[in-house]
């Protein structure tokens, strides 16, 4: 699957669909991402106050649309450490040159989330 996902790494956004922790309904957001192998990394500026992060705490099974393709995935909130630093570095590197804002503090203060892509939704 790695080869089929890598050509989508340059997409500007992904579309993350979580299951509402109260409603049980699908909720989709547009969000910046970076891809490493078959793991997608996101940063939540709202940290664990963001609804999508709260939803992941309750139900880590998610869907991610990259370009025209949708994948099933399993989300993980990252603790400080090697993978957390990787997430911050690669998301910052992807968007720092594209943004007119200084993203340094955002990349340091945000909550890092990993989504392991499992399979394509047919």
Structural write-up:
The structure is a single chain. The chain is an alpha+beta fold. The protein has a single domain (2-120), classed as Pnp Oxidase, Chain A (Roll). Helix content is 28%, strand content 38%. The protein has a 7-stranded antiparallel sheet with strand order 2-1-5-6-7-4-3, sandwiched between helices. A hairpin with a 2-residue loop joins β5 (61-66) and β6 (69-77). The longest helix has 15 residues, at 82-96. It is globular and about 35 Å long. The model has no long low-confidence stretch (mean pLDDT 93). GO terms for molecular function: oxidoreductase activity. Pfam families: F420H2_quin_red. This is Nitroreductase. It comes from Dictyobacter aurantiacus.
How is this fold's topology laid out?
Layout: H1 2-6, E1 14-19, E2 26-31, E3 34-36, E4 39-44, H2 51-58, E5 61-66, E6 69-77, H3 82-96, H4 104-109, E7 111-120
Antiparallel strand pairs: 1-2, 1-5, 3-4, 4-7, 5-6, 6-7
How is the CATH topology named?
A: Pnp Oxidase, Chain A
Give the number of domains.
1
Helix content: 25-40%
Q: Structural class of the secondary structure composition? A: alpha+beta
Identify low-pLDDT runs. none
Element string (H = helix, E = strand): HEEEEHEEHHE
| Sheet of most strands | 7 strands, antiparallel
Instruction: Specify the CATH homologous superfamily.
Output: Electron Transport, Fmn-binding Protein, Chain A
Question: Shape, please?
Answer: globular
What is the averaged pLDDT score?
93
User: Distance N terminus to C terminus?
Assistant: 14 Å
Give the class-level CATH name: Mainly Beta
Number of helices: 4
Strand content: 35-45%
The CATH architecture can be named as: Roll
Strand order across the largest sheet: 2-1-5-6-7-4-3
């Amino acid at each position: 699957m790695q080869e089929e996902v890598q050509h989508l790494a340059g997409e500007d956004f992904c579309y993350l669909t979580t299951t509402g922790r109260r409603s049980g309904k699908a909720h989709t957001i547009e969000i910046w991402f970076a891809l490493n192998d078959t793991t997608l990394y996101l940063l939540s500026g709202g940290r664990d106050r963001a609804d999508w992060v709260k939803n992941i705490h309750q139900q880590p099974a998610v869907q991610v649309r990259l370009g025209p393709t949708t994948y099933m995935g399993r989300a993980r909130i990252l603790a400080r450490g090697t993978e957390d630093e990787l997430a911050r570095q690669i998301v910052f590197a992807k968007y720092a040159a594209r943004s007119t804002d200084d993203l340094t503090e955002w990349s340091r203060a945000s909550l890092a989330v990993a989504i392991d892509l499992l399979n394509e939704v047919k």
